[in-house]
Design brief:
The protein has about 500 residues and is of the alpha/beta class. It folds into 3 domains: about 190 residues, Lambda Exonuclease, Chain A (Alpha-Beta Complex), CATH 3.90.320; about 50 residues, no CATH class; about 210 residues, Ribonuclease H-like superfamily/Ribonuclease H (Nucleotidyltransferase, domain 5). About 40% of the residues lie in helices and about 15% in strands. The strands form 3 sheets. Strands 1, 2, 3, 4, 5, 6 and 7 form a 7-stranded mixed beta sheet that branches. Strands 11-10-9-12-13 form a 5-stranded mixed beta sheet, sandwiched between helices. The longest helix is centred in the last third of the chain and has 34 residues.
């Protein structure tokens, strides 16, 4: 592909940030590789795209391995009035690939864009408007434009039914206004690409919207504990940046901060943690022994993998459970990690019920997630429904003391997540683990369970999953121990 050809992806990158666009052409080594979670999203999109093609029998799929070959083959198939998948449209300095280009009456064509999301987004309208413009510039008459996305109400029963999984929405009218501005936007982006120097674009909300920007180095000027780490800072953080305030410690007195943000600033100035001992005492007094520390790992796929589930439903495939009994020096540890590619939920439920006693607090981190997983399980398997209700009634959220800033350590850097709290409070975290994030756990489990990988790799990943999930629950024990020590000093 020509280094100066404006493709659909570069068009969207340019609308997000001109610096992103320029860097991708002139200094591509400064564009980071997608992380595991982003790659997982890409993989989901590819699978959804393949399934969508089944709704258009007779369509011709064009491989993308040969750029010029793709364009030539597309032109030939368009002459034959065939439905084309991944049609390559090149005109002037523009290029796009259309998911589905379908012939209709009177020598016209319909554009059908396939997305793995469950609703239409603004960026999708920009996406399709650019495709329409490219097609028109190449001499094609476009009748209608459609967005084909996932129906999140679909429930799998047996083989996937593509005609029920997808919703096809006519967005012809929705992109009308957007389409009128495409020529001007194209001109601006081509001018930016041709520039000798990189546009000077300040960091802002566009860095994460609509996608995570992959340009490296944009934030290197920021000091440690910058205003971008302000707890729930949002637009306030960028307002401070625009006014020349880079560090939280330098936020002027009188600037409007929430109570939690004031605590964060005070802790950075003193380099000491904030402790609300009375609130901690009240929280710790709610814990009823024996204490069960529970964590789930789940996957959520666009195309449901198991019967009775819907798109993007959290399907638990693993749990870790540490049990601290009164008087015991060492906690008991129980774990479950699904084997094979069958529905993991029945075996997980049976094992969890066997290990959870009838009394005692069940401690989780971010209760809404674990509670949601449990309630879904009760709904999917009615014989467990009463038991699930009794379990959810015993949940205690360890997130609460940190979300409420009853305890805050400056090393948390404005985050109350377990990944930030555990090392800040206990000095021990996830360093050195081969899996250190939930998204990575989901992706790697799916790959070794449903993909074709060597047995040695499969066993290694499964051990990594056990270690990671076990760290979550053991880490919660460590946190509660430290909180008790802190509260006891009051």
């Amino acid at each position: 592909m020509s280094p100066r050809l404006l493709s659909k992806s570069s068009y969207l990158n340019g609308l997000q940030c001109l610096k992103y666009l320029w860097t991708s052409f002139h200094e591509p080594d400064k564009i980071a590789e997608p992380d595991v979670a982003t790659q997982y999203v890409f993989d989901q999109g590819h699978e959804v795209g393949k399934l969508a093609k089944k709704l258009f029998p007779g369509g011709i799929d064009i491989p993308d391995s040969d750029f010029m070959g793709n364009i030539r083959q597309t032109r030939e198939l368009l002459k034959q009035r065939r439905t084309v998948f991944e049609a390559g449209i090149s005109t002037g300095k523009l290029y796009c690939r259309v998911d589905i280009l379908k012939p209709v009456d009177n020598d016209e064509w319909d554009i059908i864009e396939v997305k793995s999301s469950t609703k239409i987004k603004d960026v999708d309208l920009e996406d399709v408007a650019f495709q329409k413009y490219c097609c028109q510039q190449a001499g094609l008459e476009i009748r209608n434009c459609y967005l084909m996305h996932i129906d999140n109400k679909y429930v799998r029963q047996g083989e996937i039914e593509p005609e029920k999984l997808f919703v096809i929405e006519d967005i012809t009218e929705q992109i009308a206004d957007t389409s009128r501005s495409v020529p001007e936007k194209v001109a601006t982006l081509l001018e930016a690409i041709a520039a000798q120097s990189c546009p000077d674009i300040a960091i802002g909300k566009q860095c994460n919207s609509p996608y995570e920007c992959l340009v490296e180095g944009c934030r290197d000027f920021l000091p440690e504990d910058s205003v971008l780490e302000l707890y729930r800072g949002g637009q306030k953080s960028f307002e401070l940046l625009n006014n020349g305030v880079l560090a939280i410690c330098d936020i002027p007195d009188g600037f409007s901060l929430t109570g939690s943000q004031e605590i964060q600033k005070a802790c950075l100035l003193s380099r000491l943690p904030h402790v609300d001992r009375a609130s901690l005492r009240g929280f710790l007094d709610t814990l009823e022994p024996p204490l069960y520390y529970l964590d789930f790992e789940t996957f959520a796929t666009a195309i449901p993998l198991v019967d009775g589930s819907h798109p993007y439903q959290n399907i638990p495939f693993q749990f870790s459970l540490h049990v601290v009994r009164q008087g015991a020096l060492i906690p008991d540890h129980f774990s479950f990690l699904a084997k094979g590619d069958e529905d993991p939920r029945p075996a997980l439920l049976a094992e969890l019920k066997k290990r959870l006693g009838n009394t005692g607090s069940i401690i989780v981190y971010n209760q809404s997630f674990e509670k949601g997983v449990l309630e879904d399980l009760g709904e999917a398997f009615p014989k467990y429904e009463t038991w699930v209700k009794s379990v959810t009634g015993r949940l205690v959220d360890l997130y609460q003391p940190f979300r409420s800033f009853w305890y805050y350590h400056p090393a948390q850097k404005g985050s109350a997540s377990l990944k930030a709290v555990l090392p800040a409070v206990t000095g021990q975290g996830y360093d050195g683990l081969n899996i250190a994030k939930g998204d990575d756990a989901s992706y790697k489990y799916l790959r070794v369970t449903y993909g074709h990988v060597p047995d040695e790799e499969r066993q290694r990943v499964r051990q990594d999953l056990e270690t990671y999930c076990g760290r979550d629950t053991e880490g919660m024990i460590w946190i509660v121990k430290v909180l008790r020590e802190i509260e006891g000093k009051g």
